[in-house]
Amino acid sequence: MTEQQQRQEMVTIARSFYQRGYATGSAGNLSVLLDDGAILATPTGSCLGELLPEDLSKVTLDGNWLSGKKPSKEVSFHLALYNQNPACRAVVHLHCHYLTALSCLNNLNPENAMTPCTPYVVMRVGDIPVVPYFRPGDAQIGEHLGELAPHYRAFLLANHGPVVTGNTLRDATDNLEEMEAAARLFFTLETWPVRYLTAEEIATLRSAYHA
């Protein structure tokens, strides 16, 4: 895929997130790793429903701003993920309703925010560790994500929302959407007796999909 095609794909996916209520106002940011080793990222203060391909920020993996509008202050944690996990080719961070609500709960398991009741989150991302709360833009978010990056595909920032990686922007998008669906199930079923997947069932899924 050419850089121009990747620019257009990011704009299309961002608009879809906005139109379906996964993002509001100027919240959330996306990025993708280009073949030349730089990344495209959504600019600071931008609405995901109103992006233009030429406005996207182009940034080196060292954090140097090359072109386009000024990148989001949160691009630093995107860079931490790319630099610490060579398999990461795209990052999606949104404030979508159910995952953000989950991130605000007390006493989440720091090693995995959601006990799975269906196979799909396990298949797509596996465990979802929780990063402690820091104000948006704080460098410590990137430090924590960088430490976790080699071992996980997705993360939940406490009182903030999800950060999800993928081997393409479409893959990261699908991962995010599956996680949001799982979080919706979590809140739908919270007052009901739930048959969660067993440790053996989870291990079988991990073996099949994360080899």
UniProtKB/TrEMBL annotation:
Signal peptide from the UniProt entry: none
Any one Pfam family match given in the protein's UniProt record, by short name: Aldolase_II
Names of required cofactors: Zn(2+)
Keyword field contains Lyase: yes
EC number(s) given by UniProt: 4.1.1.104
Catalytic reactions on record: 3-dehydro-4-O-phospho-L-erythronate + H(+) = dihydroxyacetone phosphate + CO2; 3-dehydro-4-O-phospho-D-erythronate + H(+) = dihydroxyacetone phosphate + CO2
Residue ranges of every copy of the Class II aldolase/adducin N-terminal domain listed in the record: 8-187
GO molecular function, one term: aldehyde-lyase activity
Keywords (A to Z) from UniProt: Carbohydrate metabolism, Lyase, Metal-binding, Zinc
GO biological process: pentose catabolic process
GO cellular component, one term: cytosol
InterPro entries named in the record: Aldolase_class_II_sugar_metab (IPR050197), Aldolase_II/adducin_N (IPR001303), Aldolase_II/adducin_N_sf (IPR036409), OtnC (IPR050013)
NCBIfam families cross-referenced by the UniProt entry: OxoTetrPhDc, PRK08130.1
Role description: Catalyzes the decarboxylation of 3-oxo-tetronate 4-phosphate to dihydroxyacetone phosphate (DHAP) and CO(2).
Protein family (similarity comment): Belongs to the aldolase class II family. AraD/FucA subfamily.
Protein name: 3-oxo-tetronate 4-phosphate decarboxylase
Source species of the chain: Paramixta manurensis
